[in-house]
Amino acid sequence: MCVCDHQLSLSVKIPYIRVVGKALGMNLQIKEVQAKSILTPQALGSLSRGYDYSLNPYGGCAFRCSYCYVPKFPNAHHSPQEWGTWINVKVNAPALLQKDRLKVFGSRIFFSSATDPYQYIELKYRLSRKCLLELLRYQPAKVTMHTRSHLILQDLELLKAFGNRLQVGVSLTTNRDDIRSEFEPSAPSIGRRLNLIRTLSKEGIRVYASVAPLLPCDPDELAELLARHVDKMWIDRMRWAEVNTRPHLIEKYKVFFEERNYRQAIERLASRVHLINEDEIDSSMLLGTTS
Ligand code: SF4
Question: What are phi and psi of 30, to 5 degrees?
């Protein structure tokens, strides 16, 4: 994530976000920051096979997925327990894209790798929308949006303007909303995400499903839901030992996560929707929990 050099606490200046945070039972710390850069080169990183840059308009993520790998990044400054309680708003992100327009031209951009670009704070700042507008102006070769959020539909016309250069990966990890609320407590419901996939597909936007990681579910039902609207899917395993911040969930669902059962669930899911293999896939997704 980009590092800010100027921080201004805004907890008393953006009541809308405070209301959202309160509604979600969260005590969010919101800061406006001036990022030093917004395009993070991927020459040596895990995205390097498919992308030149990642773009993260926000630091932190209020969706609070228990398995999120971002707090484990070497440059993360917060413990996993704190993840989901703070957001840094990189208010100068669009201006930085203008400044870096020569880098944008012809490049492949993953948007976003360490935050969800359409988490609820986007309603206040519209930073992802502003960044998309700048990208459109400066003509990247490829843009992959990755999100769990239906709020991206607010920018549907903008997404369409990119044509085939843009695809959207929608993260959907289970067919059960009770499981979603345990592992991804503040992220949009399964119904909203399915509707998002449906709408994007209907509107001609290239969309794939990211089942990463596969959470406790009925794999047949999840496959049935996905097969109606996507023809490509990426599945990854739960990497609980490294990243999971709620160990009691692993214990609670240990039968599902038991190696043999887990492998069978993945195979049942994979039998219904075309799996993106390693040649087709953007290497970003090898991380399993992008966005
Ligand atoms: S996995 Fe993605 S959506 Fe979930 S908390 Fe991490 S960055 Fe946010």
Answer: -110, 130
| 68 alpha carbon – ligand 1 mean position (Å) | 5
Residue type, 237: R
Q: Which of 73, 148, 234, 240 to mutate to test the pocket of ligand 1 (most atoms within 8 A of CB)?
A: 148
Q: pTM here?
A: 0.86
Average pLDDT, whole number, for the chain?
Answer: 84
**Ligand 1 atom nearest 115 alpha carbon:** 7
**CB atoms < 10 A from the CB of 48, how many?**
13
* Fold of the CATH domain 35-56+90-285: TIM Barrel (3.20.20)
**111 touches 117 (CB < 8 A):** yes
| All residues at 6 or more sequence positions from 115 whose CB lies less than 8 Å from its CB, including other chains | 1, 56, 57, 58, 59, 60, 61, 70, 291
Q: In angstroms, rounded to a whole number, what is the distance separating the alpha carbons of residues 222 and 200? A: 18
232/224 Cα distance (integer angstroms): 13
Does 258 or 11 have the greater pLDDT score? 258
Q: Is the pLDDT of residue 45 over 80?
A: no
Helix (H/G/I), strand (E/B), else coil: 287: helix
Task: Average the pLDDT over each of 42-46, 65-69, 120-124 and give the range with the smallest value.
Answer: 42-46
Residue 278: predicted pLDDT: 42
For residues 90 and 62, what is the distance between their CA atoms, to the nearest angstrom? Answer: 15
The answer to whether 119 touches 149, Cβ cutoff 8 Å, is yes
